[in-house]
Amino acid sequence: MAYNHGREDRKWRIWKEAEEKMLREHGVDEAVIEQIRMEDRADFNSNRRFYRWTSDFGEYLEGIAGNEQQAEPNTVADLLDEIEDEKLYQALLTVDKHTLLILLLKMQGYSTREIAAMAGLTERAVYKRLERLRKKLKPIFYPFGEI
């Protein structure tokens, strides 16, 4: 949404009037209140200049994010549905459900210790399943050997 100076100015004035009322109730000198008002207005103007130029960039980024709306898979079925490479899909269909769950949790950023607790396995078992999966997928990603 674009920066609306009128709306922001009204919000600032309402906030400032409430603050000044409170300061007067506590017996603050009018000269001090005026000095605070001038400094706050200078801050407001500085922010206005900043937001006026950055709001267009923010709209641009929001537009790009809306175009590339890719949700992270939350289930093993979602993970398999997202795969476009036929060889990879076929290879993952031959893997057991624990390994697919480990793969999904790893993609979501969980540590091996957390995955082991969630899957009901030991950490060593998780490492071993990931190692076997890598060996199974290596011919798909490197059909002519290591690079």
From TrEMBL:
BP-aspect Gene Ontology terms: DNA-templated transcription initiation
GO molecular function, one term: sigma factor activity
Source superkingdom: Bacteria
Ranges of residues in domain RNA polymerase sigma factor 70 region 4 type: 88-137
Gene3D superfamilies membership: Winged helix-like DNA-binding domain superfamily/Winged helix DNA-binding domain (1.10.10.10)
Pfam families, alphabetized: Sigma70_r4_2
Protein name: HTH domain-containing protein
Species name: Sporofaciens musculi
